[in-house]
Amino acid sequence: MGQKLKTTGWVAAGVVAGVLTTVSLQTVARGSLAPLPLEELQQLAAVFGMVKTDYVEPVDEKKLISDAISGMVAGLDPHSQYFDKKSFKEFKEGTSGRFVGVGIEISQEDGLIKVVSPIEGSPAFRAGLKPNDLITKIDDTAVRGLSLNEAVKRMRGEANTKVLLTIFRKDENRTFPVTITREEIRTQSVRGKIMEPGYAWVRLSQFQERTVDDFVKKIDEIYKQDPNLKGMVLDLRNDPGGLLDAAVAVSTAFLPQNVTVVSTDGQLAESKSIYKASPEYYQRRAGNDPLRNLPAALKNVPLVVLVNEGSASASEIVAGALQDHKRGTVMGSQTFGKGSVQTVRPLGPDTGLKITTARYYTPSGTSIQAKGIVPNVLVDESAEGSPFAALRMREADLDKHLNSGQGPEDKSPEREKARDEARKRLEEEAKKPPQDRKVPEFGSDKDFALMQALNQLKGQTVVVSKTQTIIENKEEKKEN
Known about the structure:
single chain, alpha+beta, Pdz3 Domain, 2-enoyl-CoA Hydratase, Chain A, domain 1, 6-stranded antiparallel β-sheet, 6-stranded mixed β-sheet, 10 helices, 21 strands, disordered N terminus
């Protein structure tokens, strides 16, 4: 089982059971023959024929079919996606932690591409790109109107080729071009260090194929430096997720043997699964437990888990498991709420379909979807609060997002009010000199949330947020 767990959810190896050759063909649906909707497929075929014969200029047939599949899947939810040859290759590169590109983590903001963080040592890092920079053009193409995936495609390419990015830096109120030479990027998903004698900080920026090995290596390093740790901070802030088996492994490192880490539920039998803190649920090769040499003390070291609005998917699984088993105190802000499972099925040698097949549930049976993990202790990102957190996109904000399956969502007017206030504050912030607006680096002694986490571990006073609002679901808890 462990060898088949992949991506932001898991990738199940498989192929499409049937290929549409005529509109009357029957296909396998959940183990039984079910007729295809003949009338609608005849309409699809008719439209295809009209476009082929009547459109102002010739249209490539393969592109028409590819676009039709893309549109069908895009109408489901924000995370289902059709992969053509190029995007399938890039998807595989992303989960491996190695790809050719410029080396930035990105998100979307007001139709533009926002730099979340340049990857340390990457071409973008060396070129001086900074968090919160906005990319307005990629070569000669305006970014506004492009999807995030389309923007990624344009920034990736062959090694040693160049890409011209036009950057708008809000805090300096200027636009400037940056030419970056693409190269192979090896993302470093685990960082960590001893913050002070007895207290360690370990940060996971993503859950990739190498994450578990890098995590074990970093933990071993830390315990060699300080074998008598009194506390540890597991930092999952801005971790967008990744591979499910990596999330199960990291959770297992701290949890008792065989307890439930996460469960999933969907239409397919294989979507109804329970993943436990045991090697068969995360090891990639039979008999090879990557956690076997971890220090025994890790199971009992006092733990704080730091999260924020950017913690999603696999990082929410870890936070939820540790919280439900009372293994650690979750601190920070309510997480993103990406609680759905995507299965990737190859459609041929170089194309595939990523489709949402299940929802995640924490060990207590609570859906993460469109709600996220609510911390035990709400803590702001700075001593002045989290003035712009309300502006950050969450799963519940995404068009066509899946609901939690546990009751209607509460569209809180308080959150809309908080957004209005945050927009006004952002306008005021933009008037300040750049040096007064620099966001402290995660892991530094100016990292306010991290300092509160260390205070929690030491039994000292924690500055709790007085302004954060929680997105609630009016729900009856579902037992899974």
